[in-house]
Amino acid sequence: xxxxxxxxxxxxxxxxxxxxxxxxxxxxxxxxxxxxxxxxxxxxxxxxxxxxxxxxxxxxxxxxxxxxxxxxxxxxxxxxxxxxxxxxxxxxxxxxxxxxxxxxxxxxxxxxxxxxxxxxxxxxxxxxxxxxxxxxxxxxxxxxxxxxxxxxxxxxxxxxxxxxxxxxxxxxxxxxxxxxxxxxxxxxxxxxxxxxxxxxxxxxxxxxxxxxxxxxxxxxxxxxxxxxxxxxxxxxxxxxxxxxxxxxxxxxxxxxxxxxxxxxxxxxxxxxxxxxxxxxxxxxxxxxxxxxxxxxxxxxxxxxxxxxxxxxxxxxxxxxxxxxxxxxxxxxxxxxxxxxxxxxxxxxxxxxxxxxxxxxxxxxxxxxxxxxxxxxxxxxxxxxxxxxxxxxxxxxxxxxxxxxxxxxxxxxxxxxxxxxxxxxxxxxxxxxxxxxxxxxxxxxxxxxxxxxxxxxxxxxxxxxxxxxxxxxxxxxxxxxxxxxxxxxxxxxxxxxxxxxxxxxxxxxxxxxxxxx
Length: 516
Prior knowledge:
Strand order of the largest sheet: 6-8-9-11-10
Structural class: alpha+beta
Number of helices: 8
Oligomer: single chain
Helix content: 40-55%
Number of domains: 3
Order of helices and strands: HHEEEEHHHEHEEHEEHEE
Mean pLDDT: 76
């Protein structure tokens, strides 16, 4: 929640700060644009006054010129107000207007001529105030004189001749590029300039009050936005942490060994739903490993107990004189000892391969030659059991592998098929290429294996209860060792029912780069 609020606060402060900066600069540019327009209108009025003065600056009415620079209008809203004129340069100038100087009271010029565009009809006599109740909208076809409303001062404005001599107004010390300068033209020729200082800061009471109002408004907006963000952050926090809390509870149960209560994703398909699915998969894996470990310990105990019980019974019989100690009895004892040694060797090989402790020396070898060598070593033994070994060899398949481990893999698989195939039977091997891999399949005749149990054959000490029950001194570790060897060669091994009625083992090994 603090992260959400912190991010919101940073964005909010940046947004309000930039908005404030943009408002101040934009509003100042707007005011200066209005001032530029006022100066342009004032320059037209000054040019007209210049023409009326025989196109000379000498002898021009400075008071009237000052009024023109300040665009003083007639105040229609207050008919009792006097003519706003005669302001000195040192007094506070009135607000600029956007038009010509207004006529005296009564709407007439000093010469008694109505302004241009205004008729005498409906106008009061010269020198008289407008009648009571008179309003500007009663003058049909007439417009209110241009200019700022009375009471709002305009920036200091000055008129200069073409040579830079001051005619009226304050003497600005700054360069022209720091001032607002508008030329005064008559008949297309420049006769002078009207200058004013641009607005750089807001110092008037109205402007200060307006700026303060904007600050308070921005603060209120920021506070309201922060409160809204706090509410949304609290809701988002509850929404995001709710599944996390459930996951924490589920992981606590897993750490205590309770795998009976999987997590529920409540139909979520986002990252939380994916995480719940992964945790449930982990739960099943841990439960499976725990069950396998318990079963493995029980199976190892059983495998060790059987030869130990036989050895103990026969030794007790020899000690009690029930059986004579002869060569036949010695062979029986040796058989059980060999069984124990074979079991301990398989357990050692499996544990070493599980931890990656088997040494591998990779080199490019021909898998077809390795299969021929392994079949040659088992062919006589298979014939004695009434089994036929058949190898359907194709082209050479060069793989990068350890020759000794590949030979161990092949011998384990062939001997496993020999141990679990009824006589007369057949064991068929085939080698072919599949994409950039060498595919080796070993199929045998019945008894077979159900498809649901095929992958369990690679579990240590796993054996079926009926069809493929153990018929030799093996302990069920051979296929587990084979899987570790294949995985060390970056390959895959799988089991499935065979088309011959027995079991089919499929091994996929990547080809060497020279052949691939």
